[in-house]
Design a protein that fits this description.
Layout (H helix, E strand, L loop, with lengths): L1 E7 L10 E5 L2 E6 L4 E6 L2 E9 L2 E2 L3 E5 L4 E9 L7 E7 L5
Parallel strand pairs: 1-8
Antiparallel strand pairs: 1-4, 2-3, 2-5, 5-6, 5-7, 8-9
Length: about 100
C-alpha cells in the first residue's frame, strides 16, 4: 500500500473555508486551515485537485509506486479575494 500526505498551509481570511480534496474527480477528504492528512492508495496513476468556495486548483497528475509516499501542499494565492486561486504543489523528498 502507498500513501499520499496532503498539507494545507495556514492562511488568513481563506482559512475560514475548508478545501475539498478530489482524487480522480471524486471527493476523498477536506482540509481545514493548517491541517495535514494521510490517505492510503494502491499503486497507480492519479490526478489530485482542490476546490473551495467556487475556486479550483489545477489538476495535478502523479504516478505512485507500491510502498511509496508522496507529499503535497495546498495553498491559495491571494490576488484579491475574488481573484484568488488554489495551487497544489508536490514536494520532492522534503518535510511538510
Amino acid at each position: 500500500m502507498s500513501e499520499i500526505i496532503i498539507h494545507r498551509k495556514s492562511e488568513g481570511f481563506a482559512g475560514f473555508f475548508k478545501y475539498v480534496i478530489l482524487l480522480n474527480g471524486k471527493k476523498i477528504t477536506s482540509l481545514s486551515n493548517g491541517e495535514t492528512k494521510k490517505i492510503d492508495l494502491k499503486s497507480g496513476i492519479y490526478n489530485l485537485q482542490a476546490k473551495s468556495f467556487g475556486i479550483d486548483s489545477q489538476k495535478l497528475d502523479f504516478n505512485i509506486s507500491d510502498r511509496e509516499t508522496k507529499k503535497f501542499v495546498v495553498s491559495s494565492f491571494k490576488n484579491g479575494f475574488w481573484k484568488s486561486y488554489l495551487k497544489i504543489t508536490e514536494l520532492e523528498k522534503q518535510n511538510l
